[in-house]
Request: fold
Amino acid sequence: MPSIKAILKESSKRLREVAQSPYKEALALLANSLKKDTLWLMSHDEIVIDLPSDYLENIKKRENYCPLEYLLNIASFYSRDFYVDKRVLIPRPETEILVDTVISISKELTQPTIVEVGTGSGIISIILALHVDNAKIIAIDINDDALEVAKINAKKHGVSDKIEFRNSNVLNNVDEDIDILVSNPPYIKKDEILEKNLSYEPDIALFGGDIGDEILKQLADETIKRNIKVLACEMGYDQKDKIENYLKKYNKKAEFYKDLAGFYRGFLLREINLSQ
Reply:
């Protein structure tokens, strides 16, 4: 039987092609299989153990680019851990900028009604529920499987009573007046060739249509038609010009923000001047 040290050394070699931190990922997977924390493993790495079968299976899956988050069923967002599986998109760090923006805007409103389109794992609505007092939050998704995951996370973070989860295609099942519409919608065109790890994530959360920006435009349409105060929306790094040109037909201009890499990553459409 091999030692923990030997197991981690061999696994790290196998993960070199797919992981930025092979040892760290191997350590996390072994800790998960053994139901031990990583500090215990590092301090007992000379111990000889039976190699867990699920660990070997997970190393093989990771070699084939299955995201670590799906293997551990954990993703970090806004310094909190969330449950994830293949039913939902894995949270990205750049979405934290979108959340920060909405939290800041919410401070300008009294008891805002916030609707999130495409809640997925629920991360955006849950963080808003934790940071925005007196908000009415409606989190919608067209996928019941995703809503199940979102409810798991809402319970985990103690905000089930602050969020109404609802099945809806965009705003079809939302009649309420909306102050803030927030979304990280699918915005990849359907024939885009994806990185290998993205092939494990749900298509419904990735592909926005033949062009990719269809849902972005639909959200802008709804914002203007329903006099929603603010639309805060994530987008693809190359979609700024398309959004700008589309809004010209309404004689509207959006405010665009960049991610930490310097790419345009989202936009705000304000239908009402909140200072008035």
The chain is about 35% helix and 15% strand. The chain has two domains: 4-64, 95-270.
